[in-house]
């Protein structure tokens, strides 16, 4: 098949997906969000600082280090804020609207523009930019003096962080229709872990060669749209275990040391997962929150207190499980049993992306570009 014909076929499938989504949106009225219950806080916590980021037109994932959070606006501004107090450490400009959020190792930050340009900044100063052959919606990974990029066509590229030299490209055959949602790209020891459709793959970060591959979700359906099961971020690592969600299909875990799947459970949902030593946590398409045992995957508990509240991906922060919702409320939940511990407001706009933890500070981003930092106390 010629390149032009392949592009036409992919575009046609994207159009089909758009039409399906439009048809669904004009169907039966969605269930109303569950009203929030009166809550007597069981732990103390407060907002410790706020920063106004600017325009955020879609979820842009943040990056966190031990003492800072790095984030970007849709218009191309890139910022580093101190976890303690929210002081601006540096700011830069990608000189273009962004299609993917920021990846950072604390010094170098990387974003991708809507013109398919990979931009790398050193403490806010533009260092280099490189044209990419495909669209990118997953934040780049900056690690080991390299920048790794996952394209929507499931290609993976590696660049030298200092001079932008392309080190390798790994291109694998895949389905013509892929998901325009941030995927899985994270390090595990000396292995680069990537979401390839419904599978996790371990790559050699020096050469791009495949070390192992494990299936997390099994696509189902009669057409390309129904069989979409790409792994969505954020994924989470606890020890040797990496857990992820297959879009609308399953949640599962892989032993990254051996490269084998350990369990998978059929469950709908479109956002990433979180985990600790005991459980893996996530919300399904109706915002029912579940905790699965990290070993074996059996359900430990479920909660329906926040149904249809358009929950964000979760974060485990100490002795709390944190979700944001469509009204800008930040919910702190007991990870042992799903009971509500604390609820704190933001600016009334939806929490987008996943909360992140920088030091002892939990940071969330709202649709209005509000960056809110909280510090719960035992």
Commentary on this structure:
- Mean pLDDT is 89; it is low at 1-26.
- This protein has 378 residues and is mainly beta.
- It has one helix and 32 strands.
- 6% of the residues lie in helices and 47% in strands.
- The strands form eight sheets. Strands 1-32-31-30 form a four-stranded antiparallel beta sheet, with no helix packed on it. A four-stranded antiparallel beta sheet has the order 2-3-4-5, with no helix packed on it. It has a four-stranded antiparallel beta sheet with strand order 6-7-8-9, with no helix packed on it.
- The radius of gyration is 20 Å and the shape is globular.
- A hairpin with a 5-residue loop joins strand 24 (289-293) and strand 25.
Overall 3D form:
globular
- Total strand count, please? 32
Give the number of helices. Answer: 1
Strand content: over 45%
Q: Classify the fold: give the CATH topology.
A: Methylamine Dehydrogenase, Chain H
The largest sheet is: 4 strands, antiparallel
Find the structural class using helix and strand composition: mainly beta
Nutshell version of this structure?
The protein is mainly beta and 378 residues long. The protein has one helix at 3-25, and strands at 44-52, 63-64, 68-72, 77-82, 88-93, 98-104, 108-113, 117-122, 125-131, 141-143, 146-150, 156-160, 166-170, 185-188, 191-196, 199-203, 210-215, 231-238, 241-246, 250-255, 260-266, 274-275, 279-283, 289-293, 299-303, 315-317, 320-324, 330-333, 340-344, 351-358, 361-366, 370-377. The longest helix has 23 residues, at 3-25.
């Amino acid at each position: 098949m010629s390149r032009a014909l392949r592009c036409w076929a992919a575009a046609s499938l994207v159009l089909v997906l758009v039409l399906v989504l439009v048809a669904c949106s004009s169907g039966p009225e969605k269930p109303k969000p569950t009203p929030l219950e009166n809550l007597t806080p069981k732990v103390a916590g407060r907002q410790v600082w706020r920063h106004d980021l600017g325009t955020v037109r879609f979820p842009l994932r943040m990056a966190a280090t031990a003492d800072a959070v790095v984030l970007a606006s849709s218009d191309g501004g890139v910022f580093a804020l101190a976890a303690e107090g929210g002081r601006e450490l540096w700011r830069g400009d990608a000189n273009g609207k962004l299609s993917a959020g920021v990846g950072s190792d604390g010094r170098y930050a990387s974003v991708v523009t809507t013109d398919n340009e990979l931009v790398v900044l050193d403490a806010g100063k533009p260092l280099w930019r490189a044209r990419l052959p495909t669209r990118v919606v997953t934040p780049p990974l900056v690690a080991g003096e390299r920048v790794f990029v996952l394209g929507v066509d499931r290609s993976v590229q590696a660049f030298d962080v200092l001079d932008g030299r392309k080190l390798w490209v790994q291109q694998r055959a895949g389905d013509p229709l892929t998901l325009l949602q941030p995927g899985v790209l994270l390090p595990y020891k000396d292995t680069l872990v990537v979401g390839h459709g419904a599978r996790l793959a371990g790559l050699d970060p020096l050469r791009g060669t495949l070390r192992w591959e494990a299936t997390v979700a099994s696509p189902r359906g009669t057409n390309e749209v129904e069989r979409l099961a790409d792994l969505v971020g954020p994924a989470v690592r606890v020890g040797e275990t990496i857990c992820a969600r297959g879009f609308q299909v399953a949640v599962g875990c892989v032993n990254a040391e051996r490269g084998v799947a350990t369990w998978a459970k059929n469950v709908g949902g479109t956002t990433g997962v979180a985990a600790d030593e005991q459980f893996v946590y996530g919300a399904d398409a109706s915002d029912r929150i579940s905790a699965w045992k990290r070993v074996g995957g059996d359900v430990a508990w479920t909660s329906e207190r926040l149904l249809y509240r358009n929950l964000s991906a979760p974060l485990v922060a100490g002795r709390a499980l944190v979700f944001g919702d469509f009204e800008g409320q930040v919910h702190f939940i007991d990870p042992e049993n799903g009971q509500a511990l604390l609820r704190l407001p933001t600016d009334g706009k939806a929490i987008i992306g996943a909360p992140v933890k920088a030091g002892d500070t939990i940071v969330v981003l709202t649709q209005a570009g509000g960056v809110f930092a909280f510090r719960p106390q035992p």
